[in-house]
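Subject: sequence -> structure tokens, single chain

Hey, anyone have a minute? Need the predicted structure for the following. Not urgent.
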Amino acid sequence: MFGGEDNKRRLLNDLHILDLETMMWEEVKSEKGGPAPRYDHSAAVYADQYLLIFGGSSHSTCFNDLYLLDLQTLEWSQPDAQGAHITPRSGHAGAMIDENWYIVGGGDNASGSTDTVVINASKFVWSVVTSVSARDPLACEGLTLCSTTVDGEKVLIAFGGYNGKYSNEIFVLKSKPRNLVQPRLLQSAAAAAAAASVTAAYAVITATDEKTRDIVATDDFDIKRAQPASNSKKFVAEIDVLNGENGKLAARLAEVRDENSKLKDKLDMTNLSYGELAKELKSVQDQLAAEGSRCQKLESQIAAARKRLESAGSLENELEVLHQHISQVEETIATTQRRKSGGVWKWVAGSTEVSDDE
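Reply:
Had a minute. Here:
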């Protein structure tokens, strides 16, 4: 199992192997130079020794590259595939029939892939098998594809997928023998010269083999017209230029990977800091909640105290009124007593008059 993404949507390019006897997973460390992290790619095993990885997507772009992993040495390589130009795609499906790996469906974030393509795993030559319309159910993502034998004939069976709507249709493709020695489409003059050299050399070598004397060139390219000698210098010069550009790209890729590693470290530190800040924020929120509860209790107590103070003020007023009333009563009593009493001189005179109260 190669690549994919984890539950945090981080892209992966790691490799795992499941032992079907022990049902135990093992992560395998392969040599450098493998595919960039991706998901929605396709994978196939060829000749019980090679793992093929094609296409897929990152969060921003789709791929159309092809990688090969030797399952014995665990070394990655990127074959120099020839033939038809294959557009980037992800979400496609693939299935092997003998040496041919068929790719159906997929898309590039803008539209579905309308062509069904095949690559010969022994010669690494791409060809377009057939094409459908843009709204055809086969131009979709997420379909299922498998190979089987019906009436002695090997066929492909495709089912389902999504292209604006979900499909439950079944499609059957009958494979036909194809001459994949010569590519049908050459993308540049350098590639044409290289293909001419390789094809001419292959024709010379196989001319002595009775089983391969009948190799025929395709309509798009004529072996007899190839002149590898006249194009060799230009081809070598272009190869040197491409090697130089490849070196620059490799250096730039190393820089990007180094920067990506630093950014990952910063992200890990940020996540750690975020976790600590989240814990501190939770503690402060708990404290604020406790203080809020205390404030509510204090507000209730203050309201009760205010009521008591208001009651105390009223009592003070009543008490003041009572004091005034008592003073008035006492003053009235004193005045009454002074009126009734004749004083000391009256008593000395021997007055015997007694008041009614006495």
